[in-house]
């Protein structure tokens, strides 16, 4: 539910989640379009092509309906664009979940200000809190991998000073340990 001011403008959102959306190849033209809307919709496919944004590319919208150009640039990086659509969608959902936690449980903290303490609080809520979702280890590992990749990208581009996901160096597993011996946990 939205809160409206005296002027009728939306001023607050009671659903504090980041939303995952996907670019569309074509935009529908409303039956009663505003001036210039039909031309905008007609030019959309060309703009996508010129900008290098492929239809189906995920993007995130903040709880206050904001679009962060820098944050969403992550989904346009070459290795992300080369990933399968399901991988892109999964990364977008996992990053959105962490950002939603920052927004709702950490006093609307910006992704640029996230700390290790925020990540540890997210871990406790996701895995151990009786009121949290209590996700399985494999689910947590996948979520952390997505958030870690996003923040490593942001650090490389100078958008954040440090990655809130603790970076742990692991000893290699002994000979014959197989893949299970080399498993990485973020707990």
UniProtKB/TrEMBL annotation:
Record's keyword terms, sorted: DNA-binding
A Pfam match: Phage_int_SAM_1
Molecular functions per Gene Ontology: DNA binding
Gene3D superfamilies linked to this entry: 1.10.150.130
A Gene Ontology biological process term: DNA integration
Stretches assigned to the Core-binding (CB) domain: 63-155
Superkingdom assignment: Bacteria
InterPro entries reported for this sequence: CB, Integrase_recombinase_N, Integrase_SAM-like_N
Protein's name according to its UniProt entry: Core-binding (CB) domain-containing protein
UniProt source species: Actinoplanes auranticolor
């Amino acid at each position: 539910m939205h809160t409206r001011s005296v002027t009728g403008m939306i001023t607050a959102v009671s659903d504090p989640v980041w939303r995952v959306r996907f670019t569309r190849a074509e935009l529908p033209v409303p039956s009663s379009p505003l001036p210039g809307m039909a031309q905008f919709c007609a030019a959309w496919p060309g703009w996508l092509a010129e900008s290098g944004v492929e239809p189906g590319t995920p993007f995130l919208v903040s709880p206050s309906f904001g679009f962060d150009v820098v944050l969403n640039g992550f989904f346009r990086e070459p290795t992300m664009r080369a990933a399968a659509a399901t991988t892109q969608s999964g990364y977008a959902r996992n990053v959105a979940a962490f950002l939603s936690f920052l927004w709702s449980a950490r006093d609307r903290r910006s992704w640029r200000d996230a700390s290790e303490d925020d990540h540890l609080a997210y871990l406790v809520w996701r895995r151990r809190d009786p009121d949290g979702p209590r996700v399985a280890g494999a689910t947590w590992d996948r979520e952390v991998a997505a958030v870690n990749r996003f923040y490593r990208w942001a650090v490389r581009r100078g958008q954040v000073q440090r990655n809130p996901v603790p970076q742990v160096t692991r000893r290699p597993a002994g000979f014959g340990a197989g893949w299970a011996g080399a498993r990485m946990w973020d707990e």
